[in-house]
Amino acid sequence: MTLYMPLFRLCTTLRAVSQLHAHLFVTGLHRDPSASTKLIESYAQMGTIESAKLVFDHFPNPDSFMWGVLIKCYVWNGFFGGAISLYKKMMCSQAHLTNFIFPSVLRACSGFGDQDIGREVHARIIKCGFESDSVVETSLLSMYGEGGSLDNARQVFDGMSIRDVVSWSSIISSYVQNEQSSEGLRMFSEMIVKGQEPDPITMFAVAEACAELGLLGQAKSVHAYVVRKEIQSNGALDNSLIAMYGKCGDLYSSDVMFDNIIHRTTSSWTAIITCYYQNGCYEEALHAFVEMQESNVQPNVVTMMGILSCCARLYWLREGKSVHCYVIRKAIDPECDLLGPGLIDLYANSGKVKYCQKLFDTAEEKHILLWNMIISGYARKGLSKEALMLFVQMQSLGILLDSFTLGSVLSACGDVCFSQFGLQIHGCIIKTGISNEFTQTSLIDMYSNCGFMDSAYRIFDEDQKRSTVTWNSMICGFSQNGNSVQAITLFDQMHSNCLAMDEVTLLVAVQACSNLGHLEKGKWVHHKIINYGIEKDTYIDTALTDMYAKCGDLEMARRVFDTMSDRNVVSWSAIISGYGMHGEVETAISLFKQMVGSGIKPNEITFMNILFACSHAGYVKEGKSYFRSMMKEFGIIPTSEHYSCMVDLLSRAGDLDEAYRIIRTMPFPADASIWGALLNGCRIYRRTDMVRSIVGDLLDIQTDDTGYYTLLSNIFAEGGDWDEFKMVRSTMRNTGLRKVHGYSAIEVD
User: Fold this and answer.
1) How confident is the model at residue 128, as a pLDDT?
2) pLDDT by residue (tens digit) across 637-688?
3) Alpha-carbon torsion 376, 377, 378, 381, what sign?
4) Can you list the pairs that 154-163 forms with residues at least 24 positions away whose Cβ atoms lie under 8 Å?
5) What does the pLDDT read at residue 47?
6) How far apart are the C-alpha atoms of 226 and 242, rounded to whole Å?
7) Residue 485 exposed, middle or buried by CB count within 10 Å (0-12, 13-18, 19+)
8) Residues 671, 672, 678, 682: what is their CA dihedral angle, to the nearest 10 degrees?
9) How far apart are CA 564 and CA 743, in angstroms?
């Protein structure tokens, strides 16, 4: 039989193995245990586990080694459940157990995810006296670590008499894979202190730990250790170091590492593309993908996930479609099982909801990721009701929810103020125990959007592990609901407790100062923005411009605006509004012309600001011109606010008949603000005749604006129409409205 062993190594195809099997059968050598064992192994290597099992089944009284080889072959091919079943049959067959069996069985338990069976096998190992075998111990360590049983893994590790580099690597990897990277790094330090030299696999796990913790200094030390100890950097370690620097935000070092790789594989290119994506350098990631194609290196599914995400973040629909075609042409993911969520994200970001639905409907396997992506896609595009209907459909199919599902649904509830459904989702979170930072923050956002600030604050107050995102969510909720004082109070708490702040924290603080008119506090926040080294950000600069303008410091508002390198339509609208509210209409008009000249198209808010400026300065001709150009040149349909500005402009100028004509020709009924603008003009120019002619329209208005009723009653009183005066005042009393007294506010240091 020894003569045939080299022949097995020469069999590289299934046909060759079958021919050798036939020859052994004809010569009767198939009865030799060694021959049958090699046949089992050869068939398994060809991927035909069924043939391997047939050889085993036809062999009388297989020994322990043959059982072990078949179990190992099942594990090779990913049939973990089958491997465990074979182990149980072996136990029933009374076959003699050897230490060779247990590493494969433990690997099967790990792959199958059944810790209970793993513990039973562990008990059998102890009973057989193999618990001191180094290979078995390391397999036990890996099984417990991969299953998340870190206490058991550590117990096995501490009980090992001899700890080699494999066992150290295994325990370090176990901690890192179970989100305890700090403990993994501590174990690495202990390993070095005890004189055990690490290998590339150890350093791979250590690099991953540094990446997860974002420790750039530690990451550089790990890289230096690899270089100093001349640890042979295989491809996996190089790629891990690239990813490590990327997650730590050091793209320069990632680039240097990548440039030093001579033979760049798919994994190398994928690592650098992922680094660019994670750091927001989407265009650089796409450029790297083009270079990868020019280098004739084929991408894999993970590569394409990153590329699709880059196109989605950039809103590059055309390029995204090209990538989609490339995926189809290269058959990278024929069933779109893995790339489906990325494609839905791409089309959802570009507003192509029908494409998303088509991809979802044609997917053969609708897994949780696919459901999550389409629900979040609908929610992001304002199709909240459709998102909630999908969620209901998902639940009716019995698909298990996760935190991302619940967070997306809560976002949809908040957008449409569907608080009752949101309460049910809150109950579901409590019932299922799916509570983490994402769900807690989503609950705060949902309750805030629905106006239930007490509920939002209760969740915030009960959260013992508040992150920066949680604080931001609560501060933003207060600010958006008109509770800017509470928003500033929370911001001050963050600062006094030395908690980490980011761009969003400072942005919301500036907006709260703007709402309150707190100039000195706004300056203090601006000072902190500079001290924290926050990079120039369009959103923050726009908020600062708006804050300074609303607080009366127009010079500082203009200075911030002029230093902005990237101005969008919101930035221009803010500075135009600032000059308009301070009566400097000529400057506001000049800025509007500069904005259009720079190629930025004004939006509804821009026109509302310029019309407001014209209204309060009496620029009737200019106001009419902007109102016409809004529709004819820019295709913007006027809203109630725009009509209100126009009616106010004409009413202030005394052209009440034209103002009334505009109200009558509006495509929708006039609200209290529009009638109020006309009423104010009637009072100024004493047009009681017009008030009498429209009194029916005025009294039909349903509003909680006490100013409207007060103005109307005062007009009736001034004209001596006391019956109408009493009727308006009676309406106010019956609806529970009271005249709001005027007040002034000052800022106290």
Assistant:
1) 85
2) 999 899 999 998 998 888 999 999 999 898 888 888 888 888 888 888 888 7
3) positive
4) 159/131, 160/134, 161/132, 162/134, 163/196
5) 79
6) 13
7) middle
8) 150
9) 36
Joined tokens for residue 28? 């009767």
Q: Is the dihedral of CA 255, 256, 257, 262 positive or negative?
A: positive
How much is the pLDDT for 447?
93
Cα–Cα distance for residue pair 87/108, rounded to 1 Å: 10
59 DSSP assignment: S
Q: Is the dihedral of CA 665, 687, 739, 614 positive or negative?
A: positive
**Is the pLDDT reported for residue 548 higher than 90?**
yes
- pLDDT tens by residue, 170-192: 999 999 988 899 999 999 999 99
Q: Return the half-sphere exposure (C-beta side, CA atoms, 13 A cut-off) of residue 586.
A: 0
pLDDT at 311 over 90: yes
b/e per residue, 35-56, with b = 16+ CB within 10 A? bbbbbbbbbbbbebbebbbebb
Domain boundaries defined on the chain: 668-749
Query: Side chain identity at 213, as an amino acid letter?
Result: L
Q: Which residues contact 600 (CB under 8 A, 6 or more apart)?
A: 567, 568, 569, 572
The band of 705, judged by pLDDT with boundaries at 50, 70 and 90, is: low
Burial class (CB in 10 A: 0-12, 13-18, 19+), 194: exposed
What is the band of 30 on the pLDDT scale with cuts at 50, 70, 90?
Answer: low
Radius of gyration of the chain (CA): 36
Ordered DSSP codes for 326-380:
HHHHHTSSTT-TTTHHHHHHHHHHTT-HHHHHHHHHH-SS--HHHHHHHHHHHHH
Work out the angle at residue 492's Cα, subtended by the Cα atoms of residues 487 and 495, and round it to the nearest 5 degrees.
130
User: Going by C-beta distance under 8 Å and a sequence separation of 6 or more, which residues neighbour residue 645?
Assistant: 608, 611, 612, 614, 615, 623
Q: Which is nearest to 446 in space by CA: 468, 428, 426?
A: 426
Region 521-534: mean pLDDT is 89
HSE (side-chain half, CA atoms, 13 Å) at 503 = 11
